[in-house]
């Protein structure tokens, strides 16, 4: 499997191990990705075994956060700007779909990179939240070539489709998104924020050479195996959850690559949070840590995008 495909498969298996997916559903999703039944069964067993020691802590954290029905206003929502659907010219003559949220007086621009379910309502809201605090935001639909996220009625099918896309296409589409941001907020500094799968793609942008970015804030995204950060000037704030051992394992490699590249960087490890703790529509939402992470990102962009 390609690295991002492996990451998605492991995420499905981890969700099963932590009780968020029934075994039958996990096997169905892995099968849609192209994994043969014996390989899928072996992956579920391996992730269940590795998760046993930390499963009670993860379950407890999810329960105290409110699970899938959080209360209160998610961070940034009180000032959010509605994000509208747009299209723009992509690589190789392709048309890309995206959500665009324009700040009243843009201080900078932010590329928002979605999770492995595609361009969801939640990710569109995140773009709107950035616009509400002064950063015009663009969230590219990385399933544009497949007709767009909206054409998938099954989240698992959208995830499976993303797992089959070459990494090179993701990078090209995201770099086209950066170019579109430059056109829409001329003369302003640009940042990139991605979540989960999108956090991994944020790192991939940095290791692929993206000098247009002045800052980046990847949320719990895996650092590419053997990744080297080149031709980048971005100040990086990396965000992790203390209970997210799978992604946290790549943090030392990310820190070492940032040090080697000579980039300004910090990390925030949310103390009570697991993977995807910022997503207020998901079962691992952790309201207090999400609010802290949002404030830190705002402070970071206030320093490096203005």
Please characterize this protein's 3D structure:
The protein is an alpha/beta fold and 306 residues long. Helices cover 44% and strands 17% of the residues. The protein has an eight-stranded mixed β-sheet with strand order 1-2-4-3-5-6-7-8, sandwiched between helices. Helix 1 packs antiparallel against helix 2 (23-32), helix 1 packs across helix 3 and helix 2 packs across helix 3. The chain is globular and about 55 Å long. The termini are far apart. Residues 53-69 have low confidence and may be disordered.
Can you give me a brief rundown of this structure?
By secondary structure, the chain is of the alpha/beta class. 44% of the residues lie in helices and 17% in strands. Helix 1 packs antiparallel against helix 2, helix 1 crosses helix 3 and helix 2 crosses helix 3.
> What is Rg?
18 Å
For the report, how would you describe the main beta sheet?
8 strands, mixed
Strand order of the largest sheet: 1-2-4-3-5-6-7-8
Extract low-pLDDT stretches: 53-69
- Overall structural class, as computed from helix and strand content, comes to alpha/beta
Shape: globular
Q: Assign a percent range to the helix content.
A: 40-55%
Question: In percent, how much strand structure appears in the residues?
Answer: 15-25%
Distance between the termini: 40 Å
Count every beta strand, where a strand is a DSSP E run of 2 or more residues.
Answer: 8
Helix segment count? 11
Mean pLDDT: 93
List the helices and strands in order. Answer: HHHHEEEHEHHEHEEHHEH
